[in-house]
Amino acid sequence: MSTTDSTAPDGPVFSTEAYAAVEKAAKERRALYVPSVLEHAAELLTALWAAGEKHGVAPAEWGWVSDLAGGTLDVVSRQYESAPKPERTVAQVVSLQGHLVSALKELGLTARLGGPGVIVDRGPDTPRGGFHGDADVDVRIYSDGGWAFSFAADGASVMSIVAPASEAGASQVAEITRAFVRGELGNVFRR
Question: I need a surface site. Which of 15, 26, 31, 102 has the fewest CB within 10 A?
């Protein structure tokens, strides 16, 4: 099992096999995951596989009993999606939204604060959404949970974006939003 170090000196260490397994599990779930969350889950999976190997259980043997990669992704994701104690203040939410707007603008998108979220203008390749198919994208961070986006239309489906509630997390959410607006992800709401 090969390991990969992140660029941070004290960053995660995970195997390329664990990252691939977690990435595959992410595609089977109804959420989008930023790279740092996938790395976090891969680090946990690498550690679980290593513990198993100490007891004579090879990583490949876990597959017949459990979706260990999916389980690690679910456990790690909960840390980013569940309500913080205490909840984020309005000022913290607005600050994160401000970081998101700045990151989106740096990526060449038109974004602005709008209601409880950040409104991102759709592009020519954005999947159709909203009553007439021309709704912009609404990205939010919740005071009692994580990030999500939808079309800015009543009754629109909501997609979670599993990411840290931080400036770095906002930048990663901006990257996913850019990919969606530019049509690179397809219509993720049809997963």
Answer: 102
